[in-house]
Amino acid sequence: MAGLVPALLELGEPLEIVALGGSAEAIPRALTRIDEPPHLPTNLGWTAVGLPWAASRAGVDLIHAPAYTAPLTARVPTVVTIHDVSYAVHPEWYPYRRDPFRRAFYRRSARTAAHVMTVSEFSAGEIVRAYAIPRDRITVAPHGASHAFLPKAAGVEIALPAGVRPTFLLHIGDLHPRRNLAVVVRAIIESRREGRLRDPISLVLAGVDRGIGDELRRMAAAASLPDLVVCLGAVLDDCLVGLYRAATALVYPSRYEGFGLPLLEAMACGTPVIASRAASIPEVLGDAGILLDPDDVTGWGSAIDSVLTDPTRRERMRAAGIKRAEGFTWARTARLTLDAYRRAVESRASVVDHSRV
Q1: What is the four-CA torsion angle of 261, 264, 269, 272, rounded to 10 degrees?
Q2: What integer is the mean pLDDT of 284-299?
Q3: Count of CB atoms within 10 A of residue 331's CB?
Q4: Which among 311, 309, 303 has a CA at the least distance from the CA of 285?
Q5: How confident is the model at residue 350, as a pLDDT?
Q6: 193 and 136 together in one domain
Q7: What pLDDT, on a 0 to 100 scale, did the predictor assign at position 357?
Q8: By mean pLDDT, which of 43-47, 228-232, 242-246, 289-293 is the weakest?
Q9: Which of 70, 140, 257, 351 has its CA 20 to 30 A from that of 214?
Q10: Distances from the Cα of 282 to the Cαs of 123, 234, 297, 303, in angstroms?
C-alpha cells in the first residue's frame, strides 16, 4: 500500500482514506488511523472482531482489504486484493499443517467480497477458475514502480554486500520450490563445464530462504563451484536498489507468479531480465527481456552467456526495460483502484458523493 495510498490521495478526488489498525510507524502521516480494538492476537481474531469494530468506529463507507483476507462480517462493501492463487491451484507447494484453513479463509474472503482486485490478467483468470467468481467482479490493477528504482547515475560507485563479487546474476524474492532456481544453477554449471562461461560469476539470492538454499549450495559445491550461490537473506531497500543496479542481469525462472514485482523493479533500474515464459511473467516483461521455458537448462545457459558477453545486447535490453517500466505507474494503479471502489459501493446501491475508505 506504500505506493498506492499516496497515488490515491494525489488523484484529487473526494476520497478520505482511514487506516484501520496497523503500526502507527507504517501509516502515512496524511491518514487518520483508528487503533485496533481488543481482539485475539491472530489473523482470525482481527478479521472476525478487530477489523469490523475498527471499521464501525471509523464510520467508513467501504473496506479495502489489501492482502487476501476480508473481514468475516461487515456492514459496508469490501474490496479484497488477491495477488495470486498459487496456494489454491498448487497446494503441493504449501505443505504446512494450517494451510488448508488458510485456503478456505482466502476462498471465503474472495467469494463474499463486493469486488476483487488483482495485479494481472493472468491472476484474474486464475481467480475465476479457482473461486468461480464472475470476471466482471474483478479489476486488474498492475503494480507501479517505486521512484526509488532508477538506473545508476554515471560515475556513482555501488557498495555491494560482503561476499558479492562484481559480476553476478541476481534473483529477488523468497527461496521456495516454485521459484525454480535450480535451473539457473544447472545452466551455469553446464556452461562452465562446456567452456562457454570462463569468467567467474555468482548467483546472488536476496530473499528469505524457505528451505531450498542448502540444496542450491550443495549443487554448486558438487560441481566444484562453492562460491557460485550467495544467499543474502532479506535485504533493506537501499541495498536492494544497489543490487539491481550492479547486477549483470536479473534471473527469474519462477513457475508461477501473480505479477512478479522484481521484474518491474529490475527494468526500472535498467537491469536486463532473463525470465521464464510462465504465468504472469510474459504479461509484465513483454518483449523487453528474454523469455524461456522454465525447464530449458541449455536455453538458460545460452541466454546467460549472451547477456554476459554481448554489451550491445545488454544495452538494448536495458533501454527496452526502462521504456517498458515507464508504463507501470502508481497513478494508473490508483485510478483503477478508485474505479473498483466505486463499483463496489454501487453494487450495494449505496452511491455516495464523499467516500471514506
Answers
A1: 110
A2: 98
A3: 14
A4: 303
A5: 43
A6: no
A7: 59
A8: 43-47
A9: 257
A10: 13, 26, 19, 16
Exposure string for 268-279, b = 16+ CB within 10 A, e = fewer:
bbbbbbbbbebb
The pLDDT > 90 percentage for the chain reads 68
Cell readout for 119 is 495485479
- Predicted confidence at residue 351, as pLDDT, reads 39
Provide the CB-side half-sphere exposure for 162 (13 A, CA). 0
pLDDT surpassing 60 at residue 73: yes
Residue 337 and residue 306 share a domain: no
pLDDT tens by residue, 58-69: 899 999 999 898
Length reported for the chain:
357
CA distance 341 to 63: 9
Residues 235 and 208 occupy one common structural domain: yes
Phi (first) and psi of residue 124, to 5 degrees: -60, -45
Q: How confident is the model over 170-198, as pLDDT tens digits?
A: 999 999 999 999 999 999 999 999 888 87
Q: What is the pTM of this model?
A: 0.91
The total number of structural domains in the chain stands at 2
Amino acid at 352: V
Helix H or strand E encompassing 115: strand 115-118
SS3 label, residue 98: coil
Cell of 185: 544453477
Grid coordinates 503494480 are at which residue? 143
Same domain, 138 and 176: no
In a domain, 151, yes or no: no
Q: What is the CATH number of the domain that holds 273?
A: 3.40.50.2000
